[in-house]
Amino acid sequence: MIAMMISLTSPEDCRNWLRTFLSPSSDMLCDENVAWIQDELEKDEASRTQDTPSSFLPTRLIDVGTETRTGSVRLVTTTAMPPCTRYLALSYCWGDASAAAQQLKTTGLTLQQHLQCLPSERITNLVHDAIKVARALRVRYLWAGTQSLRTKCI
Questions:
Q1: Residue with more model confidence, 24 or 146
Q2: d(Cα 28, Cα 5) in Å, to the nearest integer?
Q3: Residue 30 domain-assigned?
Q4: Which of 94, 32, 87, 103 is nearest to 55 (CA)?
Q5: Which of 96, 98, 101, 131 ranks highest by number of CB atoms within 10 Å?
Q6: Residue 1 in this model has a pLDDT that exceeds 50
Q7: Looking at the DSSP assignment, which residues form a beta bridge with residue 141?
Q8: Which helix (H) or strand (E) holds 22?
Q9: Considering the domain boundaries, does residue 27 fall inside one?
């Protein structure tokens, strides 16, 4: 895995880095943009060689549903999933200590509940947006910080 730190100081820097100026439409999840993103993902997958399969799968993912089941979301364990299961990953700053403390977390006390349903009203707007993107791209699973990680109960 390769990680990089990028410092973006303005919205224009962010647009340039994300290459959103190439986007065919300003409605980010319109059919045209979704098709463009899917095409880019397919090109990326096709460019990978057989020697570099992606076999890492997190322990837990958020099941965002399918085209026919788009209601509530829940956490799922990946032990029975094939290693090539597709998922999107959202990495983000949880905010300062106060903001991080307010976010929905999966702990030993909440794991069983989260395997049934993640309470929508406790999911941050950013994670809700990532769920919308995953559904638009027809990617059933999402890894997102505090919901997918099992944190210690403090």
A1: 146
A2: 25
A3: no
A4: 87
A5: 131
A6: no
A7: 63, 87
A8: none
A9: no
How many domains are there within the chain? 1
Determine the Cα–Cα distance for residues 80 and 2; give it in Å rounded to an integer: 27
pLDDT confidence of residue 4:
44
Amino acid 3: pLDDT: 41
**Is the residue at 42 inside a domain?**
no
Q: Look at residues 85, 41, 40 and name the one whose alpha carbon lies nearest to residue 62.
A: 85
Which backbone phi and psi does 106 adopt, to 5 degrees?
A: -95, 120
Look at residue 41 and tell me if it is in a domain.
Answer: no
Coil, strand or helix at 67: coil
Inter-residue contact 24 to 36 (CB < 8 Å): yes
CA–CA gap between residue 115 and residue 76 (Å, rounded): 6
Taking 80 as the threshold, does the pLDDT of residue 148 lie above it?
A: no
Tokens of 119: 């309470």
pLDDT digits (tens, 9 = 90+) for 78-96: 999 888 888 988 887 777 7
Are the C-beta atoms of residues 74 and 118 closer than 8 Å to each other? Answer: yes
Phi, psi of 67 (to 5 degrees): -60, -30
CB contact at 8 A, 102 and 66: no
The domain of 67 spans 54-154
